[in-house]
User: What shape does this take?
Amino acid sequence: MVATVVLLSLLRLLSAAEGTDRDALLAFKAGVTSDPTGALRSWTNDTGTAASFCRWAGVSCSAAGRVTTLDVSSYGLEGTLSPAVADLAYLEFLNLTNNAFSGAIPDSLGKLTRLRYLSLCDNSFSGGIPGTLGGPANLTVVYLNNNGLTGGVPAWLGAMPALVYLTLYQNALTGTIPPELANLTTIQQLRLDQNFLEGVIPDGLARLPRLQFFNVYGNRLTGEIPRGFFNMSSLQGLSLTKNAFHGELPPDAGARSPNLLYLYFGGNRLSGTIPASLGNATKLQVLSLANNSFTGQVPPEVGRLCLNSLQLSNNELTASDAGGWEFLDNLTNCDALYEIQLDGNNLGGAMPTSIARLSPQLQGLSLAGNRISGVIPPGIGSLVKLQTLDLGHNLLAGAIPSGIGKLKNLRMLQLKGNELAGPVPSAMSDLTQLLNLDLSGNSLNGSIPPSLGNLQRLTLLNLSGNGLVGNVPSELFGLSALSLAMDLSGNQLDGVIPREVGQLVKLALMALSGNRFTGDVPAELGSCQSLEFLNLDGNLFTGSIPSSLSRLKGLRSLNLSSNRLSGAIPPELGQMSGLQELDLSRNDLSGGVPAGLENMTSLIELDVSDNNLDGNVPLHGVFANATGFNMAGNSALCGGAPQLQLPPCRSIAGSDSTGGDHLLLKIALR
Ligand SMILES: *[C@@H]1O[C@H](CO)[C@@H](O)[C@H](O)[C@H]1NC(C)=O
Ligand SMILES: *[C@@H]1O[C@H](CO)[C@@H](O)[C@H](O)[C@H]1NC(C)=O
Ligand SMILES: *[C@@H]1O[C@H](CO)[C@@H](O)[C@H](O)[C@H]1NC(C)=O
Ligand SMILES: *[C@@H]1O[C@H](CO)[C@@H](O)[C@H](O)[C@H]1NC(C)=O
Ligand SMILES: *[C@@H]1O[C@H](CO)[C@@H](O)[C@H](O)[C@H]1NC(C)=O
Ligand SMILES: *[C@@H]1O[C@H](CO)[C@@H](O)[C@H](O)[C@H]1NC(C)=O
Ligand SMILES: *[C@@H]1O[C@H](CO)[C@@H](O)[C@H](O)[C@H]1NC(C)=O
Ligand SMILES: *[C@@H]1O[C@H](CO)[C@@H](O)[C@H](O)[C@H]1NC(C)=O
Ligand SMILES: *[C@@H]1O[C@H](CO)[C@@H](O)[C@H](O)[C@H]1NC(C)=O
Ligand SMILES: *[C@@H]1O[C@H](CO)[C@@H](O)[C@H](O)[C@H]1NC(C)=O
Ligand SMILES: *[C@@H]1O[C@H](CO)[C@@H](O)[C@H](O)[C@H]1NC(C)=O
Ligand SMILES: *[C@@H]1O[C@H](CO)[C@@H](O)[C@H](O)[C@H]1NC(C)=O
Assistant: This one.
């Protein structure tokens, strides 16, 4: 009798509880407005079998038939998270990772006292982190990253005695880091990066006994880096990039960091020297101090580390023939190295030949923007995996070694702004993966090797500002991938432009300025459909301006100045609706100014000075005043806006001729 009563009441309890879980799940489902894969199709209010909801997709239950796990991650669900989910009183794992839930995180989650794992990351939740999540004392994992959360980092997070992973990154959190987080004695990973946090890092965080990874990259944090971080044997990764930290690194920075794998300190206001003790952080793989104000020499001890990546760009580091390059010599012992960035420092002295003995695994080497002299070591060809080699803006002299042709994986080769002399080595044609080749601003001579036409992936070619002579090989115009720029300006190139130029249909910028090109401006240029900038100024081009140029619908700037062009300005130019700058000055153009140019609302600069133009100047658009219009040095222009102070036009044959009409008249008279 008693037993029956107990059993009955137990059953009643169970079914009540069961009803609660079922209802909570159905309420959860009701919050879902879009279920593109039909993942929740199995979730129906079918009361036929006991605890049937335990078999619903994403649901797991305890032996007693209570929901312990709700994992609907990556189901593509949209909607809001129903507060009723907190009625799943036995829930331990709630995983909504990678859906499109929006709206607020319900306060009610604080009721889930058994919750151990909460992942709402990679959704679109907005609003603040609820003030009452503090209930679940057993929470070990809280992933709220990649949402649109606003407001502050709540202090109660510090009161979670079991928290191991806390990720709040990529939200829009503001305010300061609460010092209470220093009570997270079990935390191993703390990620607050990519928010708008301000203030200092509370010192206490640098004493968390189990902390392995701490990341506050991309906030607005200030103050000094708490010294304690360099005293944490547990610490493996510290990322403070892109904040406003200042001060110096402690002299013993690496002495007590045996497990440190990476230090990302780039983009702050750190100063002082790089501590030699970092060489004692023997597991260090990435040392990134770029974009700060570090001074002095790079200590040789840094070269003792077997780093993957050394990023020291944009500091004030020094080296000379008397010292400062030993670290590089010592790095030659490290096979793991794949990247060295030393650009934008004050490194001087001769280029160390040891760069040729760096790891053959090296993929990126940048020494640009220093004061390095000497020659490019011929042995550089042994860095066969190099993809990026940037030696631009130094004082390098001598020839480009033909060994460079062995760097068959190169994507980018920047040698601009040096004092390199001699020819463009024909071995360069072996660099068939090259996307970006910039040899500008050197003293290279000889002619352009036709074999450069082999560089079929090239998107940018800059040979400007050298002493290159001879014709442009027609092979160069077969570089069908050229899309960013072909800049051959400022050389002593001559001859006619090959008709093949019309094959460059992807090219946005062509600059042939300041050479000795002769012959016509090729009509085929009209086929270069992607051109936005065309600079042919400062050559010896003759003939008339081809009307085909008007087919270049995307052209923003056309410079034909300082040539020997003659004839009329083609009226078709007035149909180039995107043109902003047109420079036809210093030629021998004649006839009128095409009236169509006045209707080009985009045109803000028109220079037709020093030609032989005559006739009526239009009134509107760029002609309205002298701001963007220069017509000085023409023989007989008249009319125009009063501001231009031109003589009035004499009426010809009873018409108030526009330039266009005038042109017709002239042709008719011939
Ligand atoms: C589920 O069905 C039961 C029994 O028919 C009903 O009492 C309950 O209100 C339903 N729940 C929902 C969320 O529709
Ligand atoms: C939560 O979902 C993500 C994405 O599917 C998965 O990687 C993770 O392992 C899940 N968490 C748990 C505790 O199952
Ligand atoms: C927290 O976890 C411990 C150990 O797993 C367990 O004994 C305790 O009941 C849990 N507390 C809650 C509120 O679930
Ligand atoms: C850490 O917790 C202790 C007791 O649990 C409390 O007294 C102290 O105020 C907390 N510290 C911070 C910074 O919140
Ligand atoms: C570093 O750790 C040692 C021993 O754990 C301790 O005595 C010292 O005060 C710590 N120094 C700093 C700056 O935290
Ligand atoms: C340094 O700053 C430049 C320019 O803002 C940026 O492109 C680069 O990624 C930064 N480097 C590092 C290592 O932070
Ligand atoms: C590095 O460690 C060695 C051996 O533990 C020690 O002798 C040396 O002083 C340390 N160097 C620095 C710069 O801390
Ligand atoms: C750098 O390398 C040289 C030559 O191998 C060696 O004598 C020197 O001890 C190394 N320096 C450090 C700090 O490891
Ligand atoms: C190119 O320059 C080098 C070094 O300045 C010089 O020796 C050589 O004669 C020049 N070659 C040509 C073709 O001008
Ligand atoms: C080519 O290089 C010169 C000199 O380095 C530079 O001024 C010019 O802008 C570059 N051309 C392009 C298209 O980037
Ligand atoms: C300029 O625009 C006006 C008004 O749209 C139009 O009447 C005129 O014909 C245009 N002039 C030329 C030369 O296209
Ligand atoms: C010149 O004309 C342009 C375009 O009509 C106008 O924006 C600008 O204010 C004028 N400048 C002067 C000095 O009148």
User: Anything to note?
Assistant: The chain has three helices and 48 strands.
